[in-house]
Amino acid sequence: MALPSFEDIEVGDALPELTHPPITRLQLALYAGASGDHNPMHVDIDFVKQAGLEDVFAHGMLGMAWLGRLVTQWVPQSALRHLEARFLDIVPVHAEVTTRGRVARKFTEDGENRVELEIENVDGEGRASISGVAVVALD
């Protein structure tokens, strides 16, 4: 993986977007098994309807994993210094989600050139379900 150069990066530069296929019930069931998060809100439509919702929705941590994937497809995992997220909205089954980011700030800390990224997951209408910040070290 070719690491972006600190000198070549500008505030406002966009990261290559990740567009995910529509979320399926199978994907949610597999994620529940892999993560150990078996909350019925993510896999049991009868339970969800009793709670007053229309259908199941994606695990928040699945969305956060997509944020991490966006960053680590741009730079190696070893360059990651910080990752945080704020959960804003649920992501219903069948939603199509795009993960995107942009350079928000360039700075030097602890002897490293670093870039702060604003990152988010958005649906087809541009509504954010998760927003976050990542910091990476660049040469």
TrEMBL record:
So which domain of life are we looking at?
A: Bacteria
Q: Which Gene3D superfamilies match?
A: Hotdog Thioesterase
Q: Which PANTHER family match?
A: (3R)-HYDROXYACYL-ACP DEHYDRATASE SUBUNIT HADB (PTHR43841:SF3), 3-HYDROXYACYL-THIOESTER DEHYDRATASE HTDX-RELATED (PTHR43841)
Q: What is the lineage of its organism?
A: Bacteria, Pseudomonadati, Pseudomonadota, Gammaproteobacteria, Salinisphaerales
Entry protein name: MaoC/PaaZ C-terminal domain-containing protein
Give residue ranges for domain MaoC-like: 22-110
